[in-house]
Each structure stands twice: as structure tokens, then as C-alpha cells.
Design a protein that fits this description.
Elements (H helix, E strand, L loop, with lengths): L1 E5 L4 H5 L2 H10 L1 E6 L15 E4 L22 H7 L3 E5 L12 E5 L9 H8 L23 E5 L11 H10 L6 E6 L7 H10 L5 E4 L3 H11 E7 L2 H8 L4 E5 L4 H4 L5 E5 L1
Parallel strand pairs: 1-2, 1-4, 2-3, 4-5, 6-7, 6-9, 7-8, 9-10, 10-11
Length: 270
């Protein structure tokens, strides 16, 4: 069976799709269309026949509204790839399958009810589920000597964010663990930069900062430095857990039964 998966979305969304990608690759030939930056997240044991950048001009034809049911509107390479393939999309919209794809599977990208979203993807595709799936890191971590408590305060959503004072007070209570403190911020979190600095200064703490790294830089820095990871429900938490870093995660408005990262993640509620 040849599977074609078109997966866009945020960092956490892609990482939660990795179990499905691995299952499809074991079942047959896997072709993946996703943002180029996510190539660095593909596990070493995942065999991908082809990877196409979903943001490239070459892939624009796949997202044209006239494609569904009209294979002749696709360039020959895409029409050939989809012919007889199982096509996986992540959408709540009801759309017809391209007539040259043998099967279309539409995964709900934002389920509101359990089970866990990774399990829902696998069930929808008819794939077997490992009993250890939810506690298994998706990426390998070939390093040791980490000595940092890594805190990522932002989530891209004010509804999910935890106040800076909470992070500073909780870090102060754990000073006896003698871990270096790292505070990281993405582009969507820069409004938290000064409040976090002020909160940690009030607690008399010392820290270093990682600001707006590339995804590759973030992955490598987490892998090489973080012994523990704290955050709200955010994409960086999914990356840390995928790397096998023990995580403590505080949820506010999302359901961890659906959105908990895969790996060593302890869930708390704020």
C-alpha cells in the first residue's frame, strides 16, 4: 500500500502525527507533504519514500480548490503519485477524494473528545496501536550530561499561558536541585520576555535565555542541555517529550486526555 500524507499545522500537531507516519511506513510506501522545517523531526527509524515541502510552489497544485475529483488538473507527477494511493488529509471539511486515489482518510485535526489524538489517527487509518504508545518518546537522544531546567513559558495562546510569577516561584522552590535555568521564547512569546525576566529577578534567580531559535537549533539545544522541562500546553513541550526529556506540564483550558505529549510527561492543572 502506498500512502500519501499531507500534514500542515503547528509543531505539536506534526509531532503527534509521527506514530501514524511510522505505522503507515511499516505498512508500505510513505510519501509525506509537510513544511520543510519539519524534516528535522523525522525519526531515524522512519522510512519516507519522498518528502515534499508543502509551502513550495511545486506543491501549490495540491491545495488548489479544483483538484478534488479532477485528476487532470494535477501535474503529472502528483497525479501519478496519488493514483491508487491512500491519501491522508487533516481536515474537518467533507471533501470528495481525487478520483485517482483509491482511498481518502480525513483525520479530525481538532478533536474535542478522547481518546488521545494520536490514537484517533491510528484507529482512523486501521493501524495497530502499541500499549506503550503514549509513554514512548518519538525521537532518539544520543547525548548525556544535561544539567538544565528548561522552562518555556509561552504557548501562542493567552488562554493556555501560565503567569510568569508561577514559573519563578516554582523554580525558586526547586533551587536545591542545582540545575541551571534556561528560559526559552519563540516569536509568539516575546511579549512574555520582560515579565519573565522581572519575575525571576524578584526571586533572586539566575538564568540564561534562548530566543527565537530555528527548529533545528531548538531541538539540538533541548537534546544537549535539558535534564527537565517545564511548560504549559505548547508545541515545544511535544518536542521535549519526543526527545525523552522528563516533562512537567501545566494545562489550563485544553484536555490532556487528548493533547498530552507522547513520552515522559507528568500532567498538572493550573
Amino acid at each position: 500500500m502506498r500512502s500519501v500524507v499531507i500534514r500542515q499545522g503547528a509543531l505539536g500537531d506534526f509531532i503527534l502525527t509521527l506514530p501514524l507516519l511510522k505505522a503507515l511506513a511499516r505498512r508500505g510506501e510513505l510519501h509525506l507533504v509537510a513544511p520543510a522545517r519539519y524534516r528535522t523531526l523525522l525519526p531515524e527509524d522512519l522510512s519516507v519514500a519522498s518528502f515534499s515541502d508543502s509551502d513550495s510552489a511545486v506543491c501549490a497544485a495540491l491545495f488548489a480548490p479544483t483538484v478534488a475529483g479532477q485528476p487532470h488538473s494535477l501535474p503529472a507527477p502528483w497525479a501519478d503519485l496519488l493514483r491508487g494511493a491512500e491519501l491522508h488529509l487533516f481536515t474537518r471539511n467533507v471533501i470528495p477524494a481525487p478520483v485517482n486515489a483509491c482511498k481518502l482518510i480525513c483525520h479530525d485535526p481538532r478533536p474535542t473528545q478522547p481518546p488521545h489524538i494520536a490514537l484517533q489517527f491510528l484507529h482512523q487509518a486501521g493501524c495497530e496501536v502499541s500499549p506503550q504508545l503514549l509513554s514512548t518518546p518519538m525521537l532518539s537522544r544520543h547525548s548525556d550530561g544535561q544539567n538544565a531546567l528548561w522552562i518555556h513559558a509561552g504557548s501562542g495562546s493567552k488562554h493556555k499561558n501560565i503567569p510568569p510569577e508561577f514559573w519563578a516561584e516554582t523554580a525558586h522552590k526547586h533551587q536545591h536541585e542545582t540545575l541551571d535555568i534556561v528560559l526559552s521564547f519563540g516569536e509568539a512569546d516575546l511579549d512574555l520576555l520582560e515579565p519573565m525576566r522581572a519575575a525571576f529577578q524578584r526571586q533572586g534567580l539566575r538564568w540564561r535565555e534562548v530566543i527565537c531559535p530555528t527548529l533545528e537549533e531548538l531541538k539540538c539545544s533541548l537534546r544537549d542541555n535539558a535534564r527537565r522541562f517545564w511548560s504549559a500546553d505548547t508545541g515545544v513541550a511535544h518536542l521535549a517529550a519526543a526527545l525523552g526529556i522528563p516533562c512537567d506540564l501545566w494545562f489550563r483550558c485544553t484536555n490532556p486526555d487528548i493533547w498530552r505529549p507522547l513520552g515522559d510527561a507528568s500532567v498538572h492543572f493550573y
